[in-house]
Amino acid sequence: MKVYFFAFSVLLLQIAVFPEFLSFQNITPDILTVFVIIFTLKNDFFRSIKLASFIGILQDLLSPLDLVFNTTIKIFIASLTYLLKDRFNYTNIVVKGFFLIFIIFCDIFLRSFLLFLKTGIFEIPSFSFFYILVNFILFYIVVLKDEYR
Amino acid sequence: MKKRLYIYVFTVLILLAGGFFVVKTDLVKSIALDASYPFLRSVSELKDFAIFLTQILSSKDSLINKNKKLQQEIELLKAQIIYLKNIESENNNLKKILNFVSNKPEFSFKTGKIIGYSSDSWNGFVIINIGSTDGIKKGDIVVANGYLFGEVYQVGAFSSSVILTSDKNFMISARCRKTREAVFYRGKNTKEGKLLYVKPEQDIRIGDVVETAGFESGIPEGIPIGTVKSVSYDEGNFYKNVSVSLNINPLETEYVIVLSRKETGKK
């Protein structure tokens, strides 16, 4: 229950605080995606997918679009992370970095594809590189903090 | 292995169907908007307080200068109001002489403060601190810095979410100010939008202002959206490729104005 409350708090911070203070070139790091990846790396499949769908539904509820855009993406990310995590020595921090880049890239591709289904415009946005970079930095900060602990 | 896959697919489908049902329900969405309102409002108040503290700590001279500039601006605006009132009365007199019947709807103006932003960089929307209790309705137009900012998409009791003109899902009928060519505008990204279905014979000029056409009910005409940035042709494509540069930045905008159509009581 604690983790759900924490996720809800992070979502509210993501909406109210982070865009103003953490955005770089108008790109805000998706802390919730990073949170889903880290949670899935440490937990079993069904717990991860439950949390991913909870976060996704909350995001979709606050978004003006009547789509399960974020729910689909978060479930996909949790599934992909779980599927790949046992195939790598993911305790190695460099491997973790590549792993994150791959997952965030899949995240960008899926978002663009879902938007294409809705609007008919397929475009990998120009800010994707910054988005990967910002999420990468955030992921490393969390992981390093975790390891020092 | 097969059984696990079936369980996975079944679970994902159940979660997606549940999510779809919840997200499609307007009532649940407005409850979610209202539930997040106290937190968003508190954060906004805290930010204002922090700004107030930094202003107190900053030098007095800069505050005095800023105040002087604001007072000058107020005086200028007052003079403009007097000038516009004269024009309004002249316009009314001319209308009387011509027996002109106006069918333009009237709008009320409400000021809202941005208290929340989109949780991802793909969807362009903001949350403002006025809702149905303030008379805001779905479809109301939002203006900031003299440009079209977006449209109210979801209304809660105390807050509303506004889809921005830069969002890919934002579409509105528009026209070019100089040539009066009617077009469709659609958002593309934070810096630009595009005009849709522009025929080869339509006169679209670079630098021309694109504004709302007011074809949809409840949307006033003549609100600028952006300026035409480029016009090009794609081989094999019947329509022209027209991109429009936008002047909105939600992170730098604090207050917005919501234009709400007044109920006249006519059916």
Number of helices of chain A: 7
Helix vs. strand class of chain A: mainly alpha
The overall average pLDDT of chain A, rounded, is 82
Give the termini distance of chain A in whole angstroms. Answer: 23 Å
The rounded Rg of chain A comes to: 15 Å
Structure, described:
The complex is a heterodimer of chains A (149) and B (267). Chain A has 149 residues and is mostly helical. Chain A contains seven helices and no strands. Chain A has one domain. Chain B has a six-stranded antiparallel beta barrel with strand order 1-2-5-4-3-12. In chain B, strands 6-7-8-11-10-9 form a six-stranded antiparallel beta barrel. The longest helix of chain B is centred in the first third of the chain and has 39 residues, at 60-98. The radius of gyration of chain B is 23 Å and the shape is globular. Chain B has two domains: 1-102; 107-261, Rod shape-determining protein MreC, domain 1 (Thrombin, subunit H, Beta Barrel). Chain B has helices at residues 2-24, 26-57, 60-98, and strands at 107-117, 125-128, 141-144, 147-155, 160-164, 171-176, 182-187, 192-198, 209-212, 224-233, 240-246, 255-261. With 267 residues, chain B is of the alpha+beta class. In chain B, strand 3 and strand 4 (147-155) form a beta hairpin. The model of chain B has no long low-confidence stretch (mean pLDDT 85). The relative contact order of chain B is 0.13. The chains are: A mainly alpha (149), B alpha+beta (267). The interface between A and B is large, with 48 and 45 residues.
Task: Kindly summarize this structure in a few lines.
Chain A has 149 residues and is mainly alpha-helical.
Write the layout of secondary structure elements.
The complex is a heterodimer of chains A (149) and B (267).
Chain A: H1 2-16, H2 18-21, H3 31-42, H4 45-62, H5 69-85, H6 93-119, H7 128-148
Chain B: H1 2-24, H2 26-57, H3 60-98, E1 107-117, E2 125-128, E3 141-144, E4 147-155, E5 160-164, E6 171-176, E7 182-187, E8 192-198, E9 209-212, E10 224-233, E11 240-246, E12 255-261
Antiparallel strand pairs in B: 1-2, 1-12, 2-5, 3-4, 3-12, 4-5, 6-7, 6-9, 7-8, 8-11, 9-10, 10-11
